[in-house]
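Predict both folds.
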Amino acid sequence: MNPFEKLAKELKRLETGYREESYYRPLCDFLESHANGRDHLHMTNVVATNNPSSESIGEGVGFPDIEIRQDRKLIGYIEVKSPNQNLDSPAFSTQFSKYKESLENIIFTNFKKWTLYTWDKDGKPQKTEEAEWNYQQDLIAEQLKKLLTVFFEGQSYQAKTPHQLAIALARKTRLLSHQVEEAIKTRVDKRLVDLKETFEKTLIQNIGDHQFANIYAETIAYSLFLAKLEHYKEGGNEDFTLRTAVDYLPKSVPIFKDLYQLTGGTVAPVTQEIHKATELLIEQLCFADIAKIYKKLVEHKPGEDPVIQFYEPFLSEYDPEERKARGVYYTPKPVVDYIVRSVDFILKTKFNRKKGLGDESVQILDPATGTGTFLMSVIQNIYADIEKENTPLGNDAIKRKFKDVVSSHILKHLYGFELLVAPYAIAHLKLTLELERLGFDFSLTENDQDKENDRLKIFLANTLDDPEKQPIGLFGFESITRESEDARIVKKEKPIMAIVGNPPYSVSSSNNKIEFILNLIEDYKHGCGVEDEVRIAPIQDDYIKFIRFTQWKMEQVENGVIGFITNNSYLDGIIHRAMRLNLLKFFTEIYIVNLHGNTKLGEKSPNGEIDENVFPHIQTGVSIIFLIKKKKELDNINLSTVWYKDIYGKRVFKYNFLIENNLNSTSFKQLLPKSNYYFFTDRDITYESEYGNYLSLSDAFIEYKLGVMTGKDHFVLSYDKDQLTKRLQDLVSNKTDEELRNRYDLADSRDWTLKNARKINLASNKMTKILYRPFDELNIFYDNNLLASPQRSINAHLLNQNLALLFSKQLGTAAAYNNWLVTKGITEMAVFKSAKSAARIAPLYLYPDDTLFSESKKSNYSEKFIDKIKKILDLEYVLEGQGDLISNFGPEDIFYYSYAVFHSPTYRSRYSCQLKIDYPRLPLTTNKDLFRKLVQKGNELVNLHLLGENPFDKSKTIFDDTSRWNVKIAGNKPQDTEDWKVMEVRYDEKSKRVYINSGQYFEGIGKEVWEFMVGGYQVLDKWLKDRRKAGRTLSYDDQIHYMKVIVSLRETIRLMKEIDQSIPNWPIQ
């Protein structure tokens, strides 16, 4: 009886009433018999083993059921399901996906269907073979034989480049991370829980299970990578195994050994699953071409950073979301080298340190070391100076001098702090390889009786922790505590003269709970009126904290320099004005190279060409800053001298500039920062004084606030009222919280909880419309319990007959200010595009709290504002409605007048710089005729923007006469498509059509109308694309609405031109 007949017989016997585990032994016997049989694959010593953990993993990831090896070499895995189970069931999709991603040779089978997945040359999983087997009848099983032949030819993925190895290791490290996370949650071993607690006490407060598991698994992967490289360098004579790997871990950095022991390398493993997952990493490293990989890492070209070949692809593959959350991005080498060369120049020319960074009196710190790119550049810079000075004396002289400098300076005075263990490991690897490449032998320091140069001074520590507070450790993990203590001593005692780096960008990080840095950052929150601001979150960003930390560090020395690349929002952010003043008072000179590249705001070069970020994966604009402190000069100056340089253009242009220059060769323009904002940018101040004479809207209105923030747009808003009602019925039903969270993606956040949301009373009449985006209203159930921030105090006034002006306090520097709109109902905070330009709502009328639904109301304009207009125009004021504009005026006249002025193209362009930094200001005219004319134009604009539904003006509008619209719908429904289904959004300028699918369109839309922007959005494009994203078809009402918007925008463009023609001179007289 051949192996297939034997297996078929067992399967028939087990067909009913047996659990999945009953099939394991027959399958293992079959696989061994088929592989080792003389009549079959002619292999030897093939062993198929059932993984015990697979029998009791419950909801966990575990390991596939069967593991197949030949001798010790891994061949692959098989995941088994019962014959009555469907392999395509959604219940298995998560498990199968994780296995395919992590294991390069795996079969999924229910015995009737067999599917083999292997990795392609790029390390991506692909379906290689598939076989159907009717074991009731087919005892030859040719399809299955073919599949098994391919499977038994399998082996570990042979990575030949750092990039390939990074991808392979990342996939298998992810599996290890799953095992670690499960072990923590089930608390199977106190050692792992203790280690997590140590991390929380010394590195990352309130670290979650997933984040800790990610960090731990990543560290093991990098530790083994380092060990394998060392194993190769030492000749590789001994087998590299889970047991022997520990002997090749860096002895000078004991933390790696401490963490590694939990995998089962030196002591009993935490779990067998963790042990097995670690073995997978070992096998992957053993099967990689380490000789080629080592060569590529060491023999890199000048200006290259080998980390980009390994670390970046590893992070991107391993956990891209976590990488984004960390704010971890590789700093381009041209940026790093420009900063390092410039700091070297400053040390030599301004502080008389003739050897610059190579001077033994200069101690250097990178407080956000990452993978050590900045410190590597420092080493390369020092070596270049030594090479230049000693070239006439020969190569031996260069090598001897460099060895001396490494021992006496680089290993003693170059410091780095890194919070995450994985980049910390890579930094040690990178700098070790670089020093060896440049000719240094670490064995020289082992027996020189000088403990200060035994290791690189890169420490695993949180830079922002209190230097007065000694870290608390736990038994068994003293190495982690020791690292933090070494860093604490550097922070507290070492006179750091040069600081370089790229601090992380993260507003909501765990560092927001560290008292030491929070106390320091208070200095940036006081002065220039910042203490009165409500939204101060931008000052909480980690990069701001790092700037403040380095400033604190500079307080310890008389002379020093900081060279950073950071988010550039602090250069002109309104909330950062006290920070800028603080820096101006503390430092002697400030140099700024603004690299721009804010793709979020669509920033462009002054010539209109594309402006790219120097970081390929970052949307926020960035800048380089050099902060120089000279104690003697500080005594004689009031504020620092500020020098500024703009660099726009494509990434390669910026790189070339940075490669070819340093601070000395960069042409700077001197800035003269002025009160009250002290901007660090080159601003057009031509009309600043003129604009400053106008009254701010913050003084014009009594009440104004931000719009609604739902916290769960996808759940509490809907195009379809019935659909929203159905969701809310589920919310108040007897469905469990878990069911609701899974069905509707309802995770709790700081401002929104499911517990509160379930308190709503559906019987109450709270269904209404909300202005979500320009000219786009959605359905909402307006209940405080359902919304993260309902802003009822302001929106309640809009539940009755009212108008409200929408505007922004500030705007990103790259955008044109078009953030004005009118609303007659409640409005969402993000009705305008940029986060910086959240919509403020200023109602025309206020209703008393106890009579929100009565006729009682009063104007929302301040007495100061009204009195000013009365005085200027010499007119009386009526409390409601409109006046006759001959002897009096009313609140609605003011509203219409201001709406017209804010839609003047000249106003927007003339005051473009000023509009981006604070609340808009309104120029008032003394000319009654001009006032009347602008009131009329503003009234017409309001009617247009409310699509003819102004609650205070019932006169006929263009919307009442379709013959004046000059726009139509046309076209034929495409085959196999719903009628008026939005499948694409495409504008054809020649035919003046906007297509919503391949056959149907709106016609009569000029280019100017199509491109018209409100609140940072291209209105007509945005409205349709939102419906395409939601899979909507356009109803008749939708079509009419869209055509009304087209008419509204076209007529708005006409009116804006007429408004400009009506105003004879600027400033308005």
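Second protein follows, with its predicted structure tokens after the sequence.
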Amino acid sequence: MNSFVHLHNHSEYSLLDGMSNLEKMVARVKANNQPAIAITDHGNMYGAVEFYKYSKKYDIKPIIGLEAYCAIEDSLKKNNEEKSPYHLTLLSENETGYQNLMKMVTHSNLNGFYYKPRIDKKILEKYNEGIIVLSGCPSSELSRSIVSNDQEKIKNTYGWFSDVFKDRFYLEIMDHIGVPNQKLINQQLLEISKNNNLPLVITNDNHYVEKHDHAAHELLMCLQTNSNINDPNRFKFDDDNYYIKSSEEMWEEWKELPSGLNNTLEISERCNIKIDFSKALLPKYDCPDNKSSMEYLRELSYKGFSKRFNENDPELIERLDYELEVIEKSNFPDYFLVCWDIFNFVNSKNILSAVRGSAAASLVLYCLEVTKINPMEHNLVFERFLNLERREMPDIDMDFEDDKRNEVMKYCVERYGKDHIAQIITFGTMGAKAAVRDVTRVLDLPISVGDKLAGIIPTKVGTKIKHALEIDEFKDLMNDPDNRKVVDFAQKLEGTVRHASTHAAGVIISQDDLTNDVPLQISTSGEENAPPTTQYAMAAIADVGLLKMDFLGLTNLSIISKTIELIEKRTEKEFNIYEISKNDEQTFELLSKGDTFGVFQLESAGMRKYIKDLKPSSISDIAAMIALYRPGPMEHIDRFIRSKYGKEKIKYPHDALQDILSETYGIIVYQDQVLKIAQAFGGYTLGEADILRKAMGKKIKEVMQAEKDRFISGSLEKGFDEKTSNEVFELIEPFAGYAFNKAHSVSYAMIAYWTAYFKANYKIEYFTALLNSSINNTEKISVSVTEIRKTDLEILKPNINNSNVFFSILSSDKGKLVGYGLSSLKNVSSVSLSKIIEEREKSGPFESLGDFCKRIDSSWINKKILESLIKSGSFDEFGDRGGLLDSVERILIQINSLTRLRNSNQSTMFDLFGEEVETPVNVIEVAETATQDNEKMHWEQEVMGISFTENPNHKKMLRLKQMNEEIIVSLQQIESVDINKPQTFIAEIKSYEKRVSRKGAEFMIVKLELTDGPIDLMVWQNKISEVDIWLHSPIAKIKGKINNRNGENSLWYDSGEIFSFDEQSDISNTFTNKTPIITKEEYKPNMKNEKTPIEEITDEKINQVKEVIITVNSEEHSSNKHIMDDLTRILLDNEGNVPVSIVVKSNSEKVKLNLPFANVNTSKSLEEKLDNIIGLQNVFYKQ
């Protein structure tokens, strides 16, 4: 039977263009009985290693290639002509060709990128060895030359490729409906082949695996081009033949060109590539005095040992020698030396660092001053990090101050060479929820369709649409054909690679030029001078033998570092963080109160609750809580706390486990404990026990049974009975899956302790550093300021004469104050501010608005910056904010004029007359307005996210609380009320958001603001229809129950209404959920025929009115019936689109009457008439 090999295939790594999953692609070829397949993604090699492994799995020959973009002239040129490069199909014939592909791809991305990653003929010629070239698709140079009928260029093109690639050049022929000039191109290629004895090869431009994938691929193309399926102008493939066809299909279509079909097999035979997965491409450290790496590592380790420990404890020396032996036998001394070198630089520059993960268990790394935690003190198991039984690359995860990470990277580039270091790529795939929403959009269906379906899909990591189809509510929605269509297509796109980005921490350092083993591209991190990014992801990097390191920027380390700087500035003494007492009373007192806002790892609401209950008394307690506070082990937290305080007896499954489990009160918390139990009971070495732990985590049935048999056998040999052995194995089996890495937990506990220590002992320095860490995050600053206000610290409002670029510590008669950081204001840049503050520091405070205008340069300020400074209150000493805002244009004109004067020759004239003659300044008259507090608050919220102007509503809310203690107006009150009983709240309405539960039920989250902070109000589906009564009002009176989940309070809605401070007697009013509807018919007798003409008003706010609410007090108005008649007549006479409601109030209840027939047009005329009848104080607008 005739066979065929597909040599032109786009996988999902041709991002949002190809749809073929790599394994399905190879499996399809296997099912077709085809011997090989090529991967030719657009301009990249993202999937090469993964493709290679799947091909080997299915016993299919892998041909690694790519569809390259070739510059029109020169890949270094960037002009209009180069916006549409040629396409060219390249295949690697052998390992040399594979390496040359990587070098070409690297050049195209690092040097030739212009809209697309481009190579050119110089690069092709330089790296031609081991490469087979197919002339390409209709976008190739040869095809475009044929279409333009440029005979000379046609001849030059195929001539050049023939000369350079010799018998490795083939003319590529394909046939797809709708491709312009496809027949012309193919006819000419046949002629060129015949006349020049050049071989032909048949390809199919495959973009998906099966023919029925065509429709889903159409949607993928819509995602790429941001169009929808109904767009007549969208880019699309006109036929459904871009799939991996069988050999029979290809021979049937191309039976008249058997040579072109047979040449696919010939090329396949020529391509024989082997990627060596056994290599360890470790960096090589250049040791002094011709010492070997191991000799130098041993020397440094013992030198560090003497520094770290004052005594030669035999146990410590034995552990150090054991670790060095394992490192030597594993051939990792160079890697440890490279890590030492990096941290030697870091420590010399006083960059605060930490090491996460199992590496903190290494005594060698502690002696090298890479880690800062003594592993012996915390009983950490080295084999969890490195052991001879589990031959894997060591993994040292390094944390640095986030604003110093680039400094460390720069050092590594300079130290090891730019060709030897790169960051690691990561790929984002289309998740279940995203797929559903994307498909809804490109199918041109209402957004609500996707939102409803996506809302039911659980948010748990790894959840797929198939899991949602097991939920009854989701299954019920499948009866709707649109829903079914969305879900069917979404399942086809789910999991498809969508984008590439740079891993937050992953870095590789190699001894040799990286492009020998991995293609590179420009980093997507956006960091200046960032090292390039690999095109292979983490798993592929490990497969080819490159060693991954983690360089993570950790904000909390920056906060600690900046805190220390502020302490040293104030005390004028050096502060050594490593000399901090680990038993500081104030620190543990702070933790025991649950005062953990800003404390690393401990600030979530749930964690605050547990830390408060635990009242930790050691770093070990903190480490255990960090390990326990995760799904799975969380169920043991209460038992852990009760056991600590003797409220529950500590139980050990066997007395032999007491030493192992005593520090965690009989509960298995750490992976290290699993290893030690396997050693103590099953006779495992710690290295073997680590293999057992990994096997338990993977839950492979056959492996688990074999390990269990071995564990029982070992236990029996050690003298334990079979029943106990089984019980212990069954005990550790579930814990192995979610027990935590102790070294990691202790490392994070240490950082948590440091942050708590500084907050407890150096409060103002710590909060100042904390604020500056969020300088560009208004929401975080707002939360931090709210927390500061709960303390005895004072934070000052912005002021151009005492605030600085960043938050700072200021001295005053009151003591130390926190000065506001002006660069945190919206639209204000730190660069501009630096110039203004520099001028203030040099020449003194700005004495007036005119003085400010005279002394600053127009390049330092613009309208947005000036407006933000005024709105924040920074210029309050120069006049009223409203007046200043009205004067902005004049202020800017003044600044510009004075700047031009200074920069012109005229300025020297004034110098001739001496210092007493000043540059003339036109006086800017600021209107003496009186901006209301509400307006100031609004402006402050706009530019800062918080307000310093005292909230008049909060003052009134607190007065209400004094009148009636049952009214809740603050978060603090919640701590002392019965959460099982409904409570009454008076709160400001800030915002709301509608959502859909995973069961498909609509609900609403309303953000309420109390006097000391926000709280979420949950409104469930059965109550949503009621909230319109009060939702758009500034203040509401809400009844509901307090719900505490994982230590975080929210309010569950029961009833609510608009609240007015002018009616304080209303506090005790009851609520009614009934909303009577008054029909038009009921008011027909009161209607008059004549209509009053109204004049439309143009006020923007009034035009945004969503509802008019009129309040009538039945007790005060004896003529209530006449008022209702008059109101109805006026409302009906002023027909429009704005709905109207009337709230009738008495001492016992409020009833809202919806008037669906009486929609009005808001106008000045209407306001005047309502004022005459009911008084404007009883008329409210909802906006």
